[in-house]
Structure formats: C-alpha cells, structure tokens
Amino acid sequence: MENLKYVENAKELLKKCPKEEKWYSDEKYVKSAFGILYLGILKSIDDFLIQKGVSKKNLPKSIDEYIKYFKKYLLPYNGKLMKEFLILYDQIHIAGYYRGLIHDIKIVNELTERTKEFIIKIEKLRKGGEKDEKK
Questions:
Q1: 52, exposed or middle or buried, with CB in 10 Å at 0-12, 13-18, 19+?
Q2: DSSP type of residue 8
Q3: Do 85 and 118 meet the contact criterion of CB atoms below 8 Å apart?
Q4: Number of alpha carbons in the 13 Å side-chain half-sphere of residue 10
C-alpha cells in the first residue's frame, strides 16, 4: 500500500519535533506532518478515481470537487467514507495544517492512525474489496 508512505513520512517528521510534557512544541513540524497526512488522503482518493477512469487532468482540485467525486465514485462502495473524509478534512487539513491548532501528542497520534485506517479502506476498495458499508 504505497500511499501509507505518507503516514510513515509524517511519523518520521514528528520524531524530530521537540516535546514539552504532552505537547509538540514546534508548530512547524506538526503543521508539516498534518500537511503530509492530508496529501496521503488525497493521493489515495486520486488513485482510486484514476482506476475508475477519471483522467489525471480531471482530478478534483478543491474540497467541493472531492465531495462531488466522492458522491459519484465512492459512495456506492462505502457510504460512511465521505463522512470520515470530511471529518479528517476538518481535523487534519483545517485544524492541524491550516490553522495549526493541534499540538497534543495523543491527538496527533490518533489522527495519524485514523489517516492510516482511511487510506487502507480506500486501498481495499481499489483492490475490489470492502463493498459492505453503505450509508
């Protein structure tokens, strides 16, 4: 599962980040790690869409386009994935990367694990499995 390399890269980056008690103390490392996690999520979705016939040129370029493509291509396979994607978008991209609001080590680790789980679900769908969780 090649897109899991994004999760591993984020973990490696966080190992370099200074810590103070239960917090990461350097926002630069944390924001960068969240950016890497989000890219892994998008890359796994893009790979799925390409497999379904969407050209690289026509891949989504905004969150609204991802939602549109999700409804068309992923919802029939797993209805819970879109909600999961939107939650990860809010927590990882907006709160973690864009606004830099998350520093708690446990929360960062939990979101890293949830990203990994999401990517695995998308990869399983790409390989033809897990067509069981509709809406």
A1: middle
A2: H
A3: yes
A4: 28
